[in-house]
């Protein structure tokens, strides 16, 4: 049975408010949750960027939901050994309720530590090494590694009862096919149907057949269409660019400059904008038909409680 989850956006809400929203989503019938993990927001108007791993402990303790996070375990901001320890601790305290997705990150978040920002192929290599390092530590092995990063005589003494699943975060068929070789599953974001189908096919053909597939759905719901569109434009217009354009930007102001020519009507190409819960339901049913078994709904505007309540009443019951 598919799980419909709530996406908690640290960029848009203070951590204490986000925790209340996760609780509200659980009460409304959402059965899973996930959150972002960034150092900066994508625009200054979003206005927040709490620490995901601190927040996850509180969220797991305050709800009964399974939680996941998309992170860059070797992007520069984190060291894989330290992140492996954090993930093991959460998996130990909350068995079978925590997963993580591994991506290569963006300069906006990873370059803050002053390390060089390598090209995509080098970041892929570093990511694969990071996942192998974390898995070895979760097995209780002593790890020594000298490659894209160094690990010296590292061993975890508090081990998880089972290794947390590690998904590949993929935005293109190429990344999905590559990640299918080593990941426990896939996570991607909503895209036009033909593009999403190609990504799913690449993941399955690359070795992902039978593995779980998660979709982070970008939507904007409000009681009025104009309100939904304006909310998407105000909050999410800096997030409509492909990675090859945006991943090297280093500040929210640079994202804002890139988005200067984006118009409100452009948002329909990137976000599912509608005031009709029935239309959102149809889109989500199409996602399930593609084979996704976990859908995480990210209402990109700020009207979170309105969205949670409307979907809890009119959308989630139809997907169970």
What tags apply to this protein structure?
320 residues, 42% helix, TIM Barrel, globular, alpha/beta
Sequence-ordered SSE layout with sheet pairings:
Layout: E1 3-8, H1 15-28, E2 32-35, H2 52-62, E3 67-71, H3 80-93, E4 98-102, H4 107-110, H5 120-138, E5 143-146, E6 150-154, E7 166-169, H6 173-179, E8 185-189, H7 193-208, E9 213-220, H8 225-236, H9 243-246, H10 252-258, E10 272-273, H11 277-289, E11 294-299, H12 304-314, H13 316-319
Parallel strand pairs: 1-2, 1-11, 2-3, 3-4, 4-7, 7-8, 8-9, 9-10, 9-11
Antiparallel strand pairs: 5-6
Helix pairs in contact: 1-2, 1-12, 3-5, 6-7
What does this molecule look like?
With about 325 residues, this protein is α/β, with parallel strands linked by helices. The chain has one domain: Alpha-Beta Barrel (TIM Barrel). Helices cover about 40% and strands about 15% of the residues. It has an eight-stranded parallel beta barrel, surrounded by seven helices. Strands 5-6 form a two-stranded antiparallel ribbon. β8, α7 (about 195-210) and β9 (about 215-220) form a beta-alpha-beta unit. The longest helix is centred in the middle third of the chain and has 19 residues, at about 120-140. The model has no long low-confidence stretch (mean pLDDT about 95).
């Amino acid at each position: 049975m598919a799980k419909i989850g709530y996406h908690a956006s640290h960029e848009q809400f203070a951590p204490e408010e986000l925790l209340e929203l996760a609780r509200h989503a659980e009460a409304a019938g959402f059965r899973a949750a996930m959150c972002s993990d960034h150092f900066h927001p994508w625009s200054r108007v979003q206005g927040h960027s709490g620490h995901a791993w601190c927040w996850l402990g509180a969220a797991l303790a305050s709800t009964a939901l399974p939680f996941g996070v998309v992170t860059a375990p070797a992007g520069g901001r984190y060291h894989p050994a330290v992140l492996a320890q954090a993930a093991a601790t959460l998996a130990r305290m909350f068995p079978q309720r925590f997963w993580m997705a591994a991506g290569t990150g963006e300069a906006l978040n990873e370059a803050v530590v002053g390390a060089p920002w390598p090209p995509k192929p080098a970041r892929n290599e570093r990511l694969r090494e990071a996942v192998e390092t974390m898995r070895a530590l979760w097995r209780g092995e002593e790890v020594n590694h000298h490659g894209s990063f160094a690990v010296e005589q590292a061993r975890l003494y508090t081990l998880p009862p089972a290794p947390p699943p590690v998904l590949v975060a993929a935005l293109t068929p190429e990344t999905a096919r590559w990640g299918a070789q080593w990941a426990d599953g896939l996570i991607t974001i909503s895209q036009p149907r033909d593009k999403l189908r190609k990504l799913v096919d690449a993941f399955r053909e690359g070795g992902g057949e039978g593995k779980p597939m998660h979709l982070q759905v970008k939507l904007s719901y409000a009681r009025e269409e104009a309100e939904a569109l304006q909310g998407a434009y105000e909050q999410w217009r800096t997030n409509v660019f492909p990675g090859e354009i945006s991943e090297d930007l280093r500040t929210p102001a640079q994202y804002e400059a890139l988005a200067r020519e984006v118009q409100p009507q452009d948002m329909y190409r990137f976000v599912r904008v509608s005031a009709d819960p029935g239309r959102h339901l149809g889109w989500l049913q199409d996602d399930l038909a593609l084979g996704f078994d976990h859908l995480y709904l990210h209402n990109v505007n700020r009207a979170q409680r309105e969205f949670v309540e409307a979907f809890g009443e009119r959308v989630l019951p139809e997907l169970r």
